[in-house]
Design brief:
Shape: elongated
CATH topology of one domain: Ubiquitin-like (UB roll)
Number of helices: 15
CATH class of one domain: Alpha Beta
Strand content: 25-35%
CATH architecture of one domain: Roll
Radius of gyration: 36 Å
């Protein structure tokens, strides 16, 4: 007896007894094998009958896999995929020098396109829709079609240790030739998948994978297999050292081409400028690096909305919450800058960020490059407006405490509890308790219940910690300590008169942990220190004089329950994704840069700019996000142009005007569904027909331009429009 690989009801190769796995033998899920039994020294002449006329057993090959498919169609209980319909070929097996190629095309023989070439689908071999989608986009890339339909054997680099002995390029070229020569007959990419599993084991088996990850591997693998450079020279990288960007960029590109020269580099590789700035010594390092594609973040994944309450450190205004939108992976400096703009920060002021926990200051966020990821959405963050020149000043931190007599009306020593939002101010060399008392009076002055506005009005105009414009005007007119005129003079005079009397408040000075409270008296000497912490004990008198509602109920950084579902009106443009990709941002703590001037690793800021664009420009939309505890897919609709994608303003090279930077869309790799289950397909345009088609595994159907823009778009392929 002998056993044949009987894929698509055709004899391919005899399966001999060996240690090869099913993958290595190119045996696919759901395919048949043919058992031939020799009778009286004769082998059966038919393909479906033995010598006695009985039907032969067709044994389904079912590799071990999960009973639940991730993509590529529904799965039956026995694990068989039903996502495609097999197309049976007729006729005998063709002899071929390529034993693993189904049709055995000769790669040295130029092939012309058939009249209806490029409309063949690819059979799903079991969760291979990700591969089919990426391949269809590549085989409809015009320069690659022209290249692989010609004789390219002279460019096969079988000696490149970074390549795959030319086998990946041969397998891809063979598959492309079949797709362009077979009309509409679906192709089973078995040989190509076998090569893929051999050289990239991560894509072996029948699990779902990412089409963009496969695309990145294919482009890199094809480049190495077709690299015209047989011996790569060693070239030491150089820093810019004050030279012009044009000179450095051209030098870097020459060095890159001296080691990497292939059709992939010719059409798919561009160059971007990377600028690193040391936060300590301001050393600037500029490098120019090649890219094969651009992975663009979606703005909804890179921005973050944060609500922070801003308080005046000199008592010149009421606390006010501000909501700002900043980069999610930004730093505290970005938050301070956004808040400063929102609250109209003065030129001689800066913001001191702090986290409030249980009515104490839990921590100060004073390091500008600390990542915003350290601030959680359910935390309470405040910002104090303080003077820029504070190096010689003393920080005064004020917490509030009240007498909790809820246990018993007869208890004299009831428990004292903290409440309200802490206040922070800066003093110039406080000497005595009177100085502290005067500072507390200044800080509380905007909260005084004055005759110029009633307590009822103050409460009525307040919503979520903010006050109405009427209250703002009243406060500005009667308590702006930094203003000019008689009112400001009266306020200062009143505060000075208060300082000449006994202390106005019951104050205690504490240690760093808020313990060891000592009452503050008028003549108490304050030890010189950078930080003085005091506790203000509120009595009925303070409650009558001051409206505490402005210091209560801090808003959370971000209240997720109020998030409104996104609609198509919230769609983002491809340009906004590109802006987010090119925006300056600090490096992460795990990606520190070694500063050659400081001789230490620094958390530098990084800025990318496009310098040189390729003829084929690929955009990868980063829809998938992964963290330690969460995996997510964004179905945000990205509005991308089909024609006239003009990137001229993004290209920073002075020589950019010599080439067109206008692009036209010609292919899209789509992903439908979520992470737990999904499906890939492709849209591609036949340039000769000027018509779009939907390639859904083996099924190919025409579509209109209006249909190709969807929220499933994952990888976009553009070609340069000749000027």
């Amino acid at each position: 007896a002998r056993i044949w690989d009987y894929f698509n009801k055709r004899k391919h190769t005899i399966l001999v007894d060996s240690s090869q796995t099913l993958d290595e033998s190119n045996l696919q899920m759901d395919q048949d094998i043919l058992l031939e039994v020799q009778v009286d020294e004769f082998w059966p002449s038919g393909f479906g009958m033995d010598s006695t006329g009985n039907e032969l057993a067709l044994v389904p090959i079912e590799p071990l896999r999960s009973s639940t498919t991730i993509a590529g169609g529904p799965t039956l209980s026995n694990g068989h995929s039903t996502s495609y319909t097999s197309s049976f070929f007729q006729g005998s097996t063709l002899s071929s020098p390529f034993t693993d190629m189904e049709d055995g095309y000769d790669t040295s023989r130029p092939v012309t396109r058939s009249d209806r070439g490029g409309l063949a689908g690819l059979q799903n071999l079991g969760n291979t829709c990700f591969m089919n989608s990426a391949i269809q986009c590549l085989v409809h890339t015009p320069p690659l079609v022209e290249y692989f339909l010609q004789d390219y054997t002279d460019e096969i680099n079988g000696q490149n240790p970074l390549g795959m002995n030319g086998e990946l390029a041969l397998a891809f070229g063979e598959l492309l030739r079949k797709l362009w020569a077979s009309g509409r007959t679906p192709i089973a990419p078995r040989a190509f998948k076998g090569k893929l599993a051999r050289f990239a084991p991560q894509f072996s088996g029948y699990n779902q994978h990412d089409s963009q990850e496969l695309l990145a591997f294919l482009l890199d693998g094809l480049h190495e297999d077709l690299n015209r450079v047989k011996q790569k020279p060693y070239i030491e990288a150089k820093d810019s050292d004050g030279r012009t960007d044009e000179e450095v960029a051209d030098e870097c590109w020459r060095y890159h081409k001296a080691r990497n020269d292939s059709v992939i580099v010719d059409i798919c590789q561009g160059q971007y400028k990377s600028t690193l700035v040391c936060p300590v010594c301001n050393k600037i390092s500029i490098t120019f690096d090649p890219f094969m594609y651009l992975s663009l973040p979606l703005p909804s994944t890179v921005t973050r909305t944060m609500t922070i309450t801003v308080l005046y450190g000199d008592g010149s205004g009421l606390p006010m919450p501000h909501t700002v939108t900043i980069l999610k992976h930004g730093c505290c400096k970005d938050l301070s800058q956004a808040l400063g703009t929102a609250c109209c920060l003065k030129s001689d002021e800066c913001l001191l960020l702090a986290e409030v926990y249980e009515h104490r200051i839990y921590r100060y966020l004073e390091i500008p490059l600390d990542p915003l990821s350290s601030i959680k959405d359910d935390e309470y963050i405040v910002a104090y407006r303080i003077p820029k020149k504070r190096a010689e000043l003393t920080r005064l931190e004020i917490c509030h405490r009240y007498l909790d007599n809820s246990m018993s009306d007869n208890m004299k020593d009831c428990e004292r509890k903290l409440f309200l939002t802490p206040l922070v101010s800066y003093l110039e060399d406080p000497q005595t308790g009177a100085d502290i008392d005067l500072a507390v009076s200044r800080m509380l002055y905007p909260l005084r219940r004055k005759t110029c506005f009633s307590p009822t009005k103050a409460h009525g105009g307040k919503e979520n910690g903010s006050v109405s414009e009427a209250i703002d005007e009243s406060i500005n007119s009667c308590s702006d300590l930094s203003g000019s005129g008689k009112q400001s003079t009266d306020n200062n005079t009143e505060l000075e008169e208060m300082s000449s009397r006994e202390l106005s408040f019951q104050l205690c000075i504490t240690d760093d942990r808020g313990l060891n409270c000592r009452p503050i008296v008028k003549d108490l000497l304050i030890k010189p220190s950078k930080l003085v912490k005091v506790i203000l004990d509120w009595t009925d008198k303070e409650h009558e004089l001051y409206d505490t509602s402005y210091l209560k109920d801090l808003p959370e950084v971000h209240k997720t329950g109020l998030t409104v579902k996104k609609t198509l009106q919230d769609a983002v443009s491809l340009f906004s994704c590109l802006d987010a990709f090119l925006k300056e941002e600090p490096l992460g703590p795990d990606d520190m840069w070694y500063c050659p001037r400081c001789k230490e690793h620094r958390q530098a800021t990084k800025k990318l700019d496009l310098w040189r664009l390729p003829d084929i420009l690929v955009f990868h939309l980063k829809r998938f996000s992964y963290s330690r505890y969460l995996k997510n897919k964004l179905d945000t609709f990205v509005n991308f142009p089909i024609y006239n994608l003009d990137l001229s303003k993004y290209v920073k090279s002075k020589d950019a005007s010599t080439r067109s930077h206008v692009y036209e869309l010609y292919a899209i790799s789509n992903h439908y569904g979520g992470l737990g289950g999904g499906h890939y397909s492709a849209y591609a345009k036949l340039i000769d027909d000027d018509r779009w088609y939907h390639f859904n595994d083996a099924h190919v159907s025409p579509v209109t331009e209006a249909e190709i823009r969807t929220s499933a778009a994952y990888v976009l392929f553009y070609k340069r429009v000749k000027s």
